[in-house]
Amino acid sequence: MQKFTLMLAGLGIAAATVPATAIAAPAAAPHAASYQGGWQNINARQARLDARINQGIRSGALSRREATRLRTEFRELGRLEARYRASRPGLTLAERRDLDRRFDALSARIRIEKHDRNGRRW
Asked: Which range marks the domain in which residue 110 is found?
């Protein structure tokens, strides 16, 4: 019991010596720059989705058929974004919401396909 009390006291002293700036200002998230006024940067989001598909292929969590289907959908979203951008310099709020909804759906499909355990023997 004494060892436990001494250990707690030591942790309390260590916590008290940590500078306040380290607690108040945590390091920025690696993708913090990809958020713009509540919206995620489309290019950063596409890069993350592409990386998740690649990782699923490398780990074997995605079969060839699943990866092909996900990549096709990923490319279709890129073409849709290009069509939206061709009509005017930026995206309208409705276009942005549509793309965001479609990216959410693709992200969910990637998660489902990576965790469905088909083709694995354990």
From this structure: 63-116
* 31 part of a folded domain: no
Give the number of other Cβ atoms within 10 Å of residue 53's Cβ.
21
With a threshold of 0.70, does the pTM exceed it?
A: no
Q: Is residue 68 part of a domain?
A: yes
Reading the block at residue 39, the tokens are: 């919206």
Q: Would residue 34 count as lying in a domain?
A: no
Question: N- to C-terminal Cα distance for the chain?
Answer: 44
Convert the pLDDT of each residue in 16-42 to its tens digit: 444 444 444 444 444 444 444 556 688
Which DSSP string corresponds to 29-95? PTTGGGEETTEE-HHHHHHHHHHHHHHHHHHT-S-HHHHHHHHHHHHHHHHHHHHHHHHSSS--HHH
Question: Does 94 map to a domain?
Answer: yes
Identity of the residue numbered 72: T
Domain count, the chain: 1
